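In the previous chapter we treated chains in isolation. Here, by contrast, the input contains two separate entities that must be folded as one system, with a combined length of 808 residues.
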Amino acid sequence: MKLTIESIAQDGYHLICLEGDVDTMTAPDLLDALTALELAALSELRIEMAQVGFLSSAGLRALVFAKQKMPHASRLVLVGTSTEIADVITKTGLTQAVTLVASHDDA
Amino acid sequence: MLIERIDALPTDEIGGLKVRPGKPLPFGVSHTPNGLNFSIYTSAGTACTLVLFRRGDDEPFAELPYPAHYRIGDVFCMVVFGLDSEDLEYGFRIDGPHNPTAGHRFDPSKVLMDPYARLIAGRDLWGELPNWERNYPYRARISFDDFDWEGERPLEIASEDLVIYETHVRAFTQSPSAGTKHPGTYAGLVEKIPYLKDLGINAIELMPIYEFDEFENSRIHPESGERLYNFWGYSTVGFFAPKAAYAATGQFGMQVDEFKQLVKSFHRAGIEVILDVVFNHTAEGNEHGPTLSFKGLDNKTYYMLTPEGYYFNFSGTGNTLNCNNPIVRNLVLDCLRYWASEYHIDGFRFDLATILGRDPWGAPLSNPPLLESLAFDPILSSCKLIAEAWDAGGLYQVGTFPAFGRWGEWNGKYRDCLRRYLKGDEAQVGQLAQRVQGSPDLYRPSGRSPATSVNFITCHDGFTLADLVSFNDKHNEANGEGNRDGGDDNHSWNCGAEGWTEEAGIKALRQRQMMNAMVMLLTSRGTPMLLMGDEFGRSQRGNNNAYCIDSAISWVDWTLLESNASLHQLVKALIAFRHQHPALRVNQFDGPGSNLFPSCSFHGTQPWSPDWSDQSRQLAWLMSCNLPEPQRGVDAIYVATNMAHYASWFHFPSLPIGFRWHLCFNTGDHEQPCHPAEPALDDGGILVGDRSVVVLKAMAI
């Protein structure tokens, strides 16, 4: 399944909307979209995850990579992550890098 | 000025990929600027080819023969550029002589796994039948090893303060009664941390978690039709990789992160993680076994071979790793250093460790270089090293294991003596006195301390505690070997009926015997170890060797936690009691004792007069020390054990004015074995029931 990536600057944060699967084939596209941002100057990055069915280890790694480029006090927020993906994030100890929220209102 | 390294650029092209000569160390795969370094050792191999696969593909996308000038000594090394490491699986073909009588078994048609592989794919789901025709079943992948530990580090709890809990990743939570979201996995085990923390243990010892083949010697039971597995996992495929099928995220190749998260979570709960490691043999078996890695890389280096080229079998499992060959020694050292530094592992228990002290021809060495190297290694200096000090070749070294002042031991003599005393055998009290004070007869002559002794009554190998008091004989029919497997020297007693019974008197006695065992174990000096589930009476239905059983016989039945709540409560209270009382954890023989008593003294029904006769089945011990600042005062614990079939009045050792004895535990009190209120006793003694144990402590008025 293809991955569509939409990158939008918002007031106070940057939003990336993902739709599709982040797998070995598409994870490099996500990494490109993330590195295209000025990560070192971002205080908050939100990723819309509700339309993502699968996130591979490469995709997870891309997210953690982005967080490490961002300032220490910044936030990387995943919005609407499916239970299955949230579960993998929790089990592999990546919750310290990302914040999981159900909706933008909770962010 | 920033200058880019010129070794970030390729010099050659092989198989359509850009490459350059690599570096021989470290072995395995390492990340270099822009590339990956592939380094592999073979002394007798004549040529090597790097074989690259896309993830899961049967056919490689590239094969790269190492040019002659990419070989340094006996090491082939090459940097390959432009690889997608997420999507890569790699192996090697080695050419060389195929002459088994000379010890060589090279076969370039086989793709071999890197012995230093840190992430292994191919067998990601437990129990999924493998494709036996596949040329490359276990597939090495690239691990990043960039886990964020957030400043966490190993706990370095003193050995004498540990209470170890031996467990099996799958057996612990596979039963639906475990109520875990991820049964049978590392993540499932993490879900049980609150339970283990509440129990009070501060170290878990995991039965093998290195990648192993659960289908090794797998077969169908002729009568039950059940599939039998290599369930325990004492047969390693990859020493550097956590078992993928034990990870809930194994299918995503994330077992490395999941296992590190497990260690981090345990450490945050104050619990150390000790690994049971199997360096005595591998999953490649003997000449009839599969060729996965070592056999095809350098058979003669890695295995102990007879002069005719057959495999020595000191492990009882087909082959014996040649641990005192310098190459293998370094592999073991590299492996343990990796787990200690990259996974923050707190200690290692070495399966059949005496094999590690045999020379390449099998003779025991007086000064084994591997054991010495491990004892003095700078990276392992704060890791616990614990030996199972015997092997299947008949070498029994409890008390004489070459320890270099560092090694602890599973104390098999403690287990046997405590079991025999518990069932009421004659002539045990003398030895019991040695065992409960940390076995000075075994360890004092060589200058070792009580915590050298890992005290246990049960472990994975043998009866569970509930079975120890419910069966006279093993009942291993489920293993499909006609009940011939498993030990016969169980020193067990069924209390009056073999196996399951409704007889109330027998059930009550069994309950008391389990409590007696736990009290004696947790009031002995040394390092106590419990077997998973024994704290609530887990049974394996009389099976004392359930190595192949992946069913309810092996799985922990968590409903017992409720039905045997009083035993669980007692064990929990005993562990807390042990943590509270330093007198039970004194780690020196001939310690100074306290202002009231010697460090350790023995008593009978009359204080200071133990009955050492062969007919005696009664012994009391009194352990004492002064409390350190800021508490000051005295810690003194009196344990009276009566394994006779009649009750006896035990007179207490007298206390100076201002002190009184207080009752803490009495297993003879069916209604109330634990006494958290610790009532004072003013009668100068206490009636200790038949086959019962009483624990008291001295307190200032």
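Chain B touches chain A through 24 residues (CB under 8 Å). The domain at 6-141 of chain B is CATH 2.60.40.10 (Immunoglobulin-like). Compare these points with the single-chain example from earlier in the chapter.
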